[in-house]
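[Automated response] Your request has been received and processed.

Submitted sequence:
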Amino acid sequence: MTMRQQISDQQKAWATELSGKFDFDKYGYVFKLEDNLFLPLSGESEAEYRHAQGDELGSDGKRGKMKALHSSSALVVNFFLYWRENDRLNEIAKACGISDGMTKMQFEQIFPTGLEGNSPEPDILFTGAGLKPVAVESKFTEPYQKHTVRKIKDKYFESLNLWAGLPKCESLARLIKQEEQGKTSFTYLDAPQLIKHILGLTKTFGKLQFELLYLWYELSSTEAEEHKKQLTEFKEYIKGEVHFRDITYHHVFENIRKYPNVDSYYLSYLHERYFNSSGDYKKS
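Generated structure:
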């Protein structure tokens, strides 16, 4: 069994324990979105996801991705929405290692690169007066799905202006393009997606005027170790051009558990759903 399947099965096991409250299909998708979320989406949050390109909520009768028990976007909402709804954004930002003073958080903001097609769309954007914005890209099961090829479309190399001030990122993108005929150097890390995020954020805010935070779900495994190695390689490639950092959900959860006056049901929900079988936390 792959680690990705193990995570999916763990989520089904968690949901099965609550089967008297809601059901899910054989693929691990709930029938009602609210069953997959700690808090229902507020009007503001729903509008942000509706405006986004990822079809997380579904449309025209199509099932939304957020209905999956193993959904990365559901993980994001379950972790972060509580803090926005309770006017405590600065605390969850600090738990992620972000500078003090963040006052606004948005889901799925779009950052155009100027190219045709879908634009980069990090999961979260933190902003605060006088502070560099921080975009967060979240991963749940994705680091445990091996890819033998990573692709970057030709359109990214048709305009030299796209890479102005980012020669290291351009060199890495060209390396990935060359590797399309063979095995990729980034089997567990979606380096092309991160490069595209950097391009969109740079066009919007300017070089080194933002931070890109990579937030991922870590389970002890050979896949996780390889993923960490590839993260280190990625950082070395872009060093000096981009403020890029990574942190795990486990680390963030440990930080928020130390805060006073946090809803015990919220902490219990996160613990039982996402960390109880990881080996890092045990039932109390």
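Summary generated for your ticket: Residues 278-284 have pLDDT under 50 and may be disordered. The radius of gyration is 19 Å.
If you did not submit this request, please reply to this message.
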